[in-house]
Amino acid sequence: MRIGIVGCAGRMGRMLVNAVLDTDGCVLAGGTERLGSDALDSDLGELVGRDRAGVPVESDARLLFQRSEAVIDFTAPAATLAHAALAAELGRVLVVGTTGLSSDDEGRLREAAERAAIVYAPNFSIGVNLLMALTERASAILADDYDIEIVEMHHRHKVDSPSGTALGLGRAAARGREVALDSVWCKSRDGHTGARPRGEIGFATLRGGDVVGDHTVMFAAEGERVELTHKASNRAVFARGAVRAALWARGQSPGLYSMRDVLGI
């Protein structure tokens, strides 16, 4: 499968390049970077510290989509929407790991998925997606006698908060209780907030150092607490999951899919 990487010179982009090169059945179709990037015209293999791949870094996303069967995108919301439009126009698989998309952005992604197979997930780690499934199940079993708190920590450079993964865990917990997350969430607390409302799903955000990603879902009740935790120590787990999603999406009908579809959870 010919796979292209947009934003290939970033930390995640380089991981994705390596994952494609290391996966049987995959060929690196190319990579793009924004105009003015120092990485432009570099060989993609040399960019990630490997032997020459014979594929240069370019700036034209349309050309990349034309010669790819699938494109993986861990960039920024505005760029992702432009790439979704290209995937819809050209009928290419698109794998989206971009975080920070608004509800309107997600609506536009769904529109593009009417003409292309798009896999969109807040996290492509196999372990995190298992955590989401367990969170939904636990939330359904444990009544709202159990308070739900989601704690996440990432490196100091992360720009969105709470993380996309934390919000995904919140959605999973809300599904388990058959409620809408935005009707019960509390994203921050400060000052004299009063007692915690029954059924609230709380979030706590920590930032510092070079933490790749830690997420814990707590179910706290009188006399006991259940905690489900996942810790990522290397971004390669996200890249491998994204490549797995691209391979799975080949041959799928147009639609908006998740990693739960990919993994059959």
Question: Care to give the gist of this entry?
Answer:
37% of the residues lie in helices and 24% in strands. With 265 residues, it is an alpha/beta fold. It folds into two domains: 2-120 and 235-263, NAD(P)-binding Rossmann-like Domain (Rossmann fold); 126-232, Dihydrodipicolinate Reductase, domain 2 (2-Layer Sandwich), CATH 3.30.360.10.
Any guess at the CATH architecture of the largest domain? 3-Layer(aba) Sandwich
Mean pLDDT: 95
Pick out the low-confidence regions. none
Question: Can you tell me the overall shape?
Answer: elongated
CATH homology superfamily name of the largest domain: NAD(P)-binding Rossmann-like Domain
SS-derived structural category: alpha/beta
Number of domains: 2
Our estimate of the beta-strand percent is: 15-25%
CATH topology of the largest domain: Rossmann fold
How would you characterize the largest beta sheet?
A: 7 strands, parallel
User: How many helical stretches?
Assistant: 10
Helical fraction: 25-40%
What is the N-to-C order of secondary-structure elements (H for helix, E for strand)?
EHEHEHEHEHEHEHHEEEEHEH
What is the β-strand count?
A: 12
Can you give a write-up of this model?
The structure is a single chain. The protein is of the alpha/beta class and 265 residues long. It folds into two domains: 2-120 and 235-263, Rossmann fold (3-Layer(aba) Sandwich); 126-232, Dihydrodipicolinate Reductase, domain 2. Helix content is 37%, strand content 24%. The protein has helices at residues 11-22, 44-47, 61-66, 77-90, 103-112, 126-141, 164-176, 181-184, 236-249, 259-263; strands at residues 2-6, 27-32, 57-58, 70-73, 93-96, 117-120, 147-154, 185-186, 201-207, 213-221, 224-232, 255-257. A seven-stranded parallel beta sheet has the order 3-2-1-4-5-6-12, sandwiched between helices. The protein has a five-stranded mixed beta sheet with strand order 8-9-7-10-11. Helix 6 packs parallel to helix 7 (164-176). The longest helix is centred in the middle third of the chain and has 16 residues, at 126-141.
